[in-house]
């Protein structure tokens, strides 16, 4: 049985989503967002850095906040030590002499508890922001993001994330993915389709947070839960594609799988439990009808496509073994090698499946390049794009399968 | 209409256009493949006629000047490989594939007859194997293995001429060949140097079906040639 036929709905969905992104990218609201001038307004901002055992990076994070081009009297920096067991607390205290900086030490309660403690301490702030303690903002990032709040309906805004000094192949792959994420959030913001305000750097209107309630555990994805709650309450989530922030990412496959399992189970649990009413609901526009349903579809498709590839490879391998058994191996090799070297177009596997897959891959590459262009991220993306397009597909099923299994069996895993 | 819905509809149109274009491209490529097969077949038909004409012209000395007969058989093998690929891609029931397969079968039968004629007249001893297979699911479990083993033998022994026939092909000339060679529907079936054999077990057993000393490996031919 040829299982590739099962892959067609997912290829169709992938191409459709890319076409939707392209049309929206070229539409006027997205163009206006790209051309948006930096606002002259300087509302009171409190940047909260929730932190657990980040002694190596938190100093750099705070220094990047201190270097922000923003009136010092309008920027409060709140460092929340969430019961760290390393030297994080000491590093934080070393910044306490800055008038802008407030340091809070508390028992470990989780990221959402630390964020809420920071919000409580930021009584005068009109805008509160979250910056992970392994992330570093560019000097103009805050002003870029503040511009989004010129629209009174905007409740939160996201930044343009990329990987901090990517070195190994895994980091380069994630860098390509993050840069594509810049394009995606910029485009989806035009149709209010953003469902996560990433921890590395996002801003929120304080009064809206007070109205809808502070951060929650959110199945270990408090940033997604907050964004979904804002969407549910009818607020807009915007994106500032030129507000650059660099963040540290997993450097090994096991840690990447752990992180992505957390993200994916968080998505599935939020969708299946608290925010099921958003999925397929026309009241939530593109988010309800396109983005969230396709999020589910992508998880199923990722697992299924991987399964199909494995099935086909095993089937072909077993078939070749059975057919070729008894015939000298060098003959089998000699029949395969010319096929691999064959430039003859006649034997080129240009099927409906391969060509549609090529279209989908080219679309993805296009959005990585769009992300780089609109954010002005200086990145050499060659290796990263190749890895992201062709290696990610092999490891992503690890966390997709694990996440679905965890949700199905109600397995809870720790953050780290 | 909401802004996102307008974009969603335009995206749908674009997606349909992309898929239609890809479908058209795949179809176009398949047509080009069939056209190439047709061109090869036309060339082979001309070659067959040419060899037969040479044979007729050289009635006095028919065994001279018939160079190219082996090249013709090699070309026929190449056509067979392409046809098998096209059959896999377009499906065994595709009318165009069936038509090409019929022509290919006819060319094989003509080459087989010509080889036999040359052997008789010129005192040659070609090594010939007729191979009958079936693509009908469940009718021939060992056909893939048998076909692969024959391909190996064909490469290992350059003098071996293998003619493969789809037993179920609805072609009068093939049915006549089956009747003349008295081949039963027990597949895979072989006619090796005029002797019928059924079923496939191992490569060694298949090799043993050939009369002893008839199969000469490629390296032996090269050695004997250089010795001369």
Mean pLDDT of chain B: 81
Structural class of chain A: alpha/beta
Number of strands of chain A: 8
Shape of chain A: globular
Unreliable sequence segments of chain A: none
Q: How large, in whole angstroms, is the Cα Rg of chain A?
A: 23 Å
**Biggest sheet of chain A, strands in spatial order?**
3-2-1-4-7-6-8-5
Description:
- The complex is a heterodimer of chains A (416) and B (228).
- Chain A has one domain.
- Chain A contains 15 helices and 8 strands.
- The longest helix of chain A is centred in the C-terminal third of the chain and has 40 residues.
- Chain B has 2 domains: 124 residues, no CATH class; 103 residues, Glutaredoxin, CATH 3.40.30.
- Chain B has a 4-stranded mixed β-sheet with strand order 2-1-3-4, sandwiched between helices.
- Chain B is elongated and about 85 Å long.
- The C terminus of chain B is likely disordered.
- At the A-B interface, α1, α11, α12 and α13 of A face α1, α2 and α4 of B.
Topology:
The complex is a heterodimer of chains A (416) and B (228).
Chain A: H1 8-26, H2 28-35, E1 45-51, H3 58-66, E2 75-82, H4 88-93, E3 101-106, H5 111-121, E4 127-130, E5 135-137, H6 141-146, E6 154-163, H7 169-190, E7 202-205, H8 206-212, H9 222-232, E8 236-247, H10 253-272, H11 285-324, H12 329-341, H13 352-375, H14 382-390, H15 392-408
Parallel strand pairs in A: 1-2, 1-4, 2-3, 6-8
Antiparallel strand pairs in A: 4-7, 5-8, 6-7
Helix pairs in contact in A: 1-7, 1-11, 1-13, 2-7, 7-13, 7-14, 10-15, 11-15
Chain B: H1 3-57, H2 69-90, H3 95-122, E1 127-133, H4 143-156, E2 160-166, H5 172-181, E3 189-192, E4 195-198, H6 203-208, H7 218-227
